[in-house]
Amino acid sequence: MNLTNNLLRNFQSVPDNICLIQDNIKIDYKTLYNKVANFAVYLKKHGIKKGDNVLVLIPMSINLYVSLLAIWSIGASACFMDAGFIKNGMKKNEFKEVNGIIGITKYLIYSNVNRNLRKLRIKINSNIISKLSSDVDLDIEEVDESSNAILTYTSGTTGTPKVAARSHSFLQNQGIILEKCLNYEETDIELSSVPIFTLSNINFGITTVIANGNFKNLGNSNASKLVKQIEINNINRIMAAPGLLNLIVEYCMINNKKLYNVNKVFTGGGAVFLDFIEKVKFVFPNALITTLYGSTEAEPIAELNINDMTSDDIENTKNGYGILAGNIVGVDDCKTIKYDIDEIGNISAYEFKKIQTDEIGEIVVTGKNVLEGYVNGVGDKENKFSVEGKKYHRTGDLGIIKDGKLWLRGRIKQPFFHIEASLHSNLNIGKTAVFKNEGKTILVLENSDNIKNEDIYNCINFDKIDEIIHVKKIPVDKRHSTKVDYNELKKILKI
Questions:
Q1: Is the overall model pTM greater than 0.90, yes or no?
Q2: Residue 157, pLDDT above cutoff 70
Q3: Which pick of 90, 268, 303, 367 has the fewest CB atoms within 10 Å?
């Protein structure tokens, strides 16, 4: 089993269909096949072989997918870091399992002075891909279904960096699950800023337009360029993190523009509040809007078709339930457990039942699309446990399951989605952040001077807010430009 066989299938069945569009460059499946075949030959000549781990330092682009598929065809695996954390990740990770690097020029230069990477002999500039054009066949190495396809290095923001390994069979199974959630049609043309979902698009033979975004910091992307991409490429579906989608939505609202051709919008990777959903509906009046909840270790866990939200769901959001993630999908089991447990280890079904809760608890999942462990076991004790041999993943997220629907309350250390979701569904409010400091619950509002504190206190009658602070800007993560950077926020507030 080798995932590159999906490309071979599309090369044989739909060779002339456009696969990827980047700026003014369009390539069909035949061209992608040829580029992958040529680059695979080049990689093998330069020492990449079956079983190797290759660090890929390339932004989201056509060359990224050529590199990934070429690596897989050899029987090697690709190692990734989030674009916004590459230099920081190079410092934190030792890369003991890496055999070589493929990257753009600036990252290759940086790797030469990085103590963890300068010792590597094989370093290949991805710019060579455009210069390779021989007429060669793609030789796909057969690999065991448990062979690693992707190793993902975490940013290490919550402690020691972990390495998540996804096998060929894991990704194939994940693709099957995503196909059910993503509602593919042969004529779809998708604007995407999410690399793993673009890989799914390639596997299923649809067209992906790579978002003209700043992948180091999505919030600094040019909204007018993104909207122009949507219009000139006849985009009918969008896959984007909330931060990037918000740029598009705000631009369109300011310029009184609606994008009628888009009939599907998918978003996730951060909090999606009701007021934002209403804006998305306004800009994309013909779109089916779907939110996805998941993580690197388990994607997806839940999905919500916005049209399925009931009046009760909306009232519950206003009254402090949290953010509705929707129906549980993909995983074999999803439970909530008491969230004050450090390590769980191997337990019986009876012991598992005792730590479960029908109230707010940590979300834990198991299934074929859930990673059973990390490379070398780093992070397993804290994030994994077994119930009579069945591995569960601890998400670190708090939630509650009511009537088969999953509601999110935030991270264990920041369990305040219920406050924020209520504010965003009751008031015309900007970006928000809620955290504890010295026992006090503090609400921070961005550019919301028009909001009276009295209205906020009246709205949040199910919990207590001790202090309200107004700021010009709330800092967010670079990966999705959605999640609040609480460490940076506290620096700004000097607390």
A1: yes
A2: no
A3: 367
